[in-house]
Amino acid sequence: MVHEIEDFHGVYLLYCQNPRFKGRTYIGYTVDPNRRIKQHNTGSHAGGAWRTSGRGPWEMVLIIHGFPNMISALRFEWAWQHPDKCRRLRQVSVAKRRSESAFEHRWRMVCHMLHTPPWKRLGLTVRWLKQDFKLDFPADLAPPLHMPIVFGPVCSKKIHTGKDSSPCKPTNAPSATTTEAESRLGDFQDSIIPTVTKKTPFCAADDTRMTCLFPECTVVSHMTCLASHFLQSETDGSGHVIPVEGKCPGCGLQVLWSSLVRHYKGCYQDLTLSATQGCFAVLEVKSCSSSGQCAANECCVSNDRPIGKRQLRPGGTCRSLGASGVGCLVSSPAYDDSHMYYYCPCETGLTCKGSGIIDVPLGEVGKHLHLVVQSPSCR
Predict the structure, then answer these.
(1) pLDDT below 70 — which residues of the chain?
(2) pLDDT, tens digit, 9 for 90 and up, residues 62-73
(3) Which pLDDT score is estimated for 361?
(4) Tell me, what's the pLDDT at 85?
(5) Long-range contacts of the stretch 228-231 (C-beta < 8 A, 24+)
(6) pLDDT given at position 95
(7) Shortest CA distance to 30 belongs to which of 18, 14, 43?
């Protein structure tokens, strides 16, 4: 099965099968792996590199993909091609060992690179296109947990624009005047729910709206606010600006930051509820009209955003009661089975501490924090 990936940016490793040049390798960047390997094997006149021209056939055996853009991928490509000149690999023994083949040396270098910032925090995927060439990661250089190791062919796919423009299969879908991405964003523009309570210096000027991957989640957030929320859960204390992953404040979906950025750029627009549950196995969505229809540790959150003094309309989703650090509404009433909420009330032992940020027309938002009870000796 060919895996289709939208907005593809990958750095690949070629292996020469020509008996005269067997064992030689080549590193390159591509947005279309299938087209690129054909160019290499056809020659420089067809767009292939001069270093591979006339030395084929070549096999594309490994590709690292998931880079956010072309610049990021090209920097990775250059460092992999020139590890001796890369300042980020100065602490690594980059010289080729006598016992190593060129292929093994390239593999050892990329193992070190995936453990080196900034690449170790990117949502990359290590894909073996030819399983016969697979090498294991050294025990001390296992990839970060958020980087999967996968097998099989891959095909680039253009971001959905109302018709299927994938090069992996014929274009036969009808065109549309309004794309699914535009429609989805339009639905959210009228129902913006702030998801983070820590105001950043960029928040006032940042109008970049990010949505959750989960199709039923209605949360929308500023990019910088959501990044700050994700970073609060990181424990390394390194002062990072861009997070690796985090939980959606609305539905609790554990998601990679890179996946949210790709979603913002138009990817995953055909994602279904079953697909997200298959990938992340996070939660089961239950519709409700009052909190009494939800589980004991849940409340019913409205799918609508109020405008002016408009009352709640029937239709909500069961969500977990507010845990520590999750966004809340200071003026939210106490839990009542007959109520529907815009923000879930606090769990037992927590209180909603205001942040000074006003969500018009609901009021001040904050986050759930543990109650601080002073002992008699402190009074």
Answers:
(1) 1, 160-207, 235-238, 270-286, 303-315, 323-326, 356-361, 371-379
(2) 999 999 999 999
(3) 64
(4) 94
(5) 228/196, 228/198, 228/200, 229/195, 229/196, 229/198, 230/257
(6) 92
(7) 14
What local confidence, expressed as pLDDT, does residue 310 receive?
A: 45
Whole-model pTM: value is 0.62
- With tokens 């029937």, the residue in question is 314
pLDDT of residue 230: 87
3-state secondary structure the chain: CCEEEECCCEEEEEEECCCCCCCCEEEEEECCHHHHHHHHHHCHHHCCCCCCCCCCCEEEEEEEECCCCHHHHHHHHHHHHCCCCCHHHCCCCCCCCCCCCHHHHHHHHHHHHCCCCCHHHCCCEEEECCHHHCCCCCHHHCCCCCCCEEECCEEEECCCCCCCCCCCCCCCCCCCCCCHHHHHHHHHHCCCCCCCCCCCCCCCCCCCEEECCCCCCCCEEEHHHHHHHHHCCCCCCCCCCCCCEEECCCCCCEEEHHHHHHHHCCCCCCCCHHHHHHHHCCCCCCEECCHHHCCCCEEEEECCCCCCCCCCCCCEEEEECECCCCEEECCCCCCCCCCCECCCCECCCEEEEEEEEEECCCEEEEEEEECCCCCHHHC
Q: Name residue 94's amino acid.
A: V
Closest CA to 353 of 330, 323, 320, 325: 330
Task: Sort strands 58-65 and 10-16 into parallel, antiparallel or unpaired.
Answer: antiparallel
d(CA 33, CA 39): 10
Amino acid code (one letter) for 131:
Q
Q: pLDDT tens-digit profile of 96-134?
A: 999 999 999 999 999 999 999 899 999 999 999 998 999
pLDDT at 342: 78
Q: What is the pLDDT of residues 137-150, one digit of tens each?
A: 988 888 888 899 99
Cβ partners under 8 Å of residue 183, min gap 6: none
How far is it, in rounded angstroms, from Cα 192 to Cα 55? 56
Identity of the residue numbered 213? L
